[in-house]
Amino acid sequence: MYRVRLTTFLVGLMFLVVVIVIVIGKGISALSPAPVRAVSDRPIMAFYYPWYELTDWTYDRMSDVASPKYSGGDDETLKRHIRQANEAGIDALICTWYGPDETRLDTRCRRLQQLAAEEDGDLQIAIIPDQSAWSSLRSVEALTQALEVLERDLMSQPNYLKFRGKPAVFWFNPPSLGGVETWQQLRDRADPDHQQFWFGGTDDFDYLGVYDTLYYFDITWERAPGAAMESYNERLDGRAPFIATVMPGYDDRPLRGRSGHWRDREGGAYYRGTWEDAVAYHADGVVITSFNEFFEGSHIEPSEQFGDLYLRLTTELSDYFRANVGQPTDPMPADPTPSPSSSECRTFSETGYQVCGRLLEYWEQNGGLPVFGYPIGSQHEESIEGTPTQVQPFERNRLELHPDNARPYDVLLGRLGADRLEQAGRDWETFETVSEAPPGCLYFDQTGHRLCEPFLSYWRGHGLTLDNQQGYSTQENLALFGLPLSEPHTETLSDGKDYVVQWFERARFEHHPDNPEPYNVLLGLLGVEVQDAQQASCCP
């Protein structure tokens, strides 16, 4: 009987101890803050734009608008964005900054960092000094001074983003400041010991020696889903951290008109595919273009057209990335994508015309929409220099099929610059010429013309792929544009405004100073102009 009572007592005592432990544990849990997500060593970062005012929200310049509409300087707006980013699994917002002397964005980026530190969560802040859009920053001296302020005031805060243990600085459109030598001067002055980690937004790998790694800001120009990251992986070749770009889509046509472009969101399928690429290539970091760039239609922020779909997708896909990155998956498809056959076509709903086979392949591989524009007619036969030739007109050029030539010369570009001048009764051989070019320019003695900024950077940044090597050679630039036929000069274009233009054998370069770089240099719609002139002359 004694043993029974003792056993009962011991069981009761043990039960009491368990209850006390549970109660105490619950008390401790209630008093302790919930654990927060630690910032990953493979961070997920999103470009963030604090520049909006209530008057900006208009479908005249945007394909979609925020819901709710807001001012970027409002505390409640900033807090909402911080909460949304935290909940979506974003580690850092990259705040666009015009330097310490431009008070509007400077104040908003600083306030974003302050409020992020006060909110629950681990959201970090990084800065992208945008010298391409703010001319006062566009010098080595100005950027050096700006970086001193950035290092002193923002990088010194605990919630400034660090990558590989160093404060992160993002850059965009490096030619707006200068070439590799200019950027090396900046690095030598502002960060000679490489105490910061510089992300360079460019596909020109000559800059890799200046920046610590490169990233692609916009991948929606890619010829097919996944092509941009495949090319980036091949060109990076393990020399620096792989920073994957993910995007929901793109649509800047309301802002930029016919010079803009569009990538269908496909109900979220395109966005999902870009995240799958980030996992497949074991990305060392991810940049989302963008959290709230509504002018370019690349936003994931809740909006009138999409609701909160893309924030919910970001939550799902950021979790997917963290759960799978680094796993031993094959980053490349087992079979290479075959070249388009003659039966493969793409219909462009914007103009209703179809492009097929080799012409479609050439269009996709050599610049696509920004270089050639949309098709404005069907493939058909014309007499080119006395030979029957299959051709197809596009907004900015004409593609000619020459199957007897070896690749890549089986497709040639029309001389639409020369053709359009001839149509207008202008003999380019009578244009004023020069005998030399100033430093920093190119000179073409074949036609007696020079090529300088702002057109030179655009020229060097585009070309036909002839040797499968990274970057473009002068031969590849010439293959796309031809020789200059004029000096830069002012002309009145079809919109009734005056622009500085320069004519080339196959193009007309136009300077649109009101556009942000790199969209301040556009190619004229010569295909449209030539076709309109032909129709007007034959069919009044």
Task: Characterise the protein shown here.
With 540 residues, the protein is an alpha/beta fold. The protein folds into three domains: 281 residues, TIM Barrel; 75 residues, no CATH class; 109 residues, no CATH class. It is 33% helix and 18% strand. It has 15 helices and 23 strands. The strands form seven sheets. Strands 3-2-1-11-8 form a five-stranded parallel β-sheet. A four-stranded mixed β-sheet has the order 4-5-6-7, with no helix packed on it. The protein has a four-stranded antiparallel β-sheet with strand order 14-15-16-17, sandwiched between helices. Strand 4 and strand 5 form a beta hairpin. Helix 2 crosses helix 3, helix 4 crosses helix 5 and helix 12 packs parallel to helix 15. The longest helix has 30 residues. The termini are far apart. The N terminus is likely disordered.
Output the keywords.
TIM Barrel, 5-stranded parallel sheet, single chain, 18% strand, alpha/beta, 540 residues, 4-stranded mixed sheet
Would you state the CATH class of the largest domain?
Answer: Alpha Beta
What is the CATH topology classification name of the largest domain?
TIM Barrel
Integer count of domains: 3
- Average predicted local confidence, pLDDT: 86
Helix content: 25-40%
Q: Which strand order does the major sheet show?
A: 3-2-1-11-8
Rounded to an integer, what's the Rg over CA atoms?
A: 28 Å
Structural class category: alpha/beta
Question: CATH H level of the largest domain: which superfamily?
Answer: Glycosidases
Total number of β-strand segments?
A: 23
N- to C-terminal distance: 120 Å
Number of helices: 15
User: How many strands, which pairing sense, and closed or not: the largest β-sheet?
Assistant: 5 strands, parallel
Strand content: 15-25%
Q: Could you list the spans in which at least 5 consecutive residues all have pLDDT below 50?
A: 1-38, 328-343
Shape: globular
